[in-house]
Amino acid sequence: MTDKPVDHDDMNQEQPEQPVEDGAQAQAGDAGEQSEVEQLKAQLAEKEEELLRIAAEMQNVRHRAERDIESARKFALERFVEGLLPVVDSLELGIQATEKENATLEKIKEGDEMTLKMLIQTLEKFGVQAVHPIGERFNPDHHQAMSLQPHDGEPDHVVDVMQKGYLLKDRVVRPALVVVSKPK
Question: pTM of the full predicted structure?
Answer without folding.
Answer: 0.59
